[in-house]
């Protein structure tokens, strides 16, 4: 049985999704949510550019960057891009590949510990957390030790 099969008995798909992706995109009036006909010939092409699949990269990426520069959510979007370590979409003026070049190991560890904390708060057994995150159990236990006092109240009082 795969970890995702086992976890269906423990959690709803929504709860699992948010535990695995604990960083939400910025809320508010994102420039990329409105079609800018002066920059993209069609709404679909704009969407494709922000989905990380530009139809004509040499034309679409500079246009997407320009939209991000004018977006009121630019700072929070940059933070989200950093925390989420999204590997596909165009965010805060950068392609996924451009962001990946700046990734540091510390960011990967921070994201994993956040996932561990969220899954633990949902009372997912350590063995399944390890399988979901592709780690061995001892490294998850080590994360939990390090998280210690930073675990949600529901866990520390259990
Ligand atoms: S900064 Fe760019 S990607 Fe982020 S919400 Fe604004 S327009 Fe969209």
Provide keyphrases for this structure.
158 residues, mainly alpha, 2 domains, disordered C terminus, binds iron/sulfur cluster
Topology:
Elements (H helix, E strand, L loop, with lengths): L2 H5 L5 H8 L22 H8 L6 H13 L4 H11 L11 H5 L4 H17 L4 H8 L3 H11 L5 H4 L2
Helix pairs in contact: 2-7, 3-4, 8-9
Folded structure, characterized:
This protein is mostly helical and 158 residues long. The chain folds into two domains: 3-22 and 105-155, no CATH class; 31-102, no CATH class. Helices cover 57% and strands 0% of the residues. It has helices at residues 3-7, 13-20, 43-50, 57-69, 74-84, 96-100, 105-121, 126-133, 137-147, 153-156. It is elongated. The relative contact order is 0.13. The model is unreliable at 153-158 (pLDDT under 50). The structure holds iron/sulfur cluster. The site of iron/sulfur cluster (SF4) has 13 residues, from helix 4 and helix 5. Iron/sulfur cluster binds at residues 26, 30-32, 50, 67-68, 71, 73-74, 77, 91-92.
């Amino acid at each position: 049985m795969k970890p995702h099969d086992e976890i269906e008995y423990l959690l709803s798909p929504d709860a699992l999704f948010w535990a695995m992706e604990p960083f939400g995109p910025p809320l508010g009036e994102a420039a990329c949510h409105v079609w800018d006909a002066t920059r993209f010939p069609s709404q679909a092409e704009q969407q494709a550019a922000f989905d990380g699949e530009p139809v004509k990269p040499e034309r679409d990426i500079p246009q997407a960057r320009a939209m991000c520069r004018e977006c009121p959510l630019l700072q929070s979007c940059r933070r989200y891009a950093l925390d989420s370590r999204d590997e596909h979409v165009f965010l805060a003026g950068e392609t996924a590949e451009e962001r990946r070049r700046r990734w540091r190991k510390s960011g990967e560890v921070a994201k994993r510990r956040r996932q561990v904390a969220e899954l633990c708060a949902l009372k997912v057994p350590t063995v399944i957390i390890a399988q979901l995150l592709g780690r061995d159990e001892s490294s998850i236990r080590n994360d939990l030790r390090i998280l210690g006092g930073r675990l949600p109240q529901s866990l520390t009082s259990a």
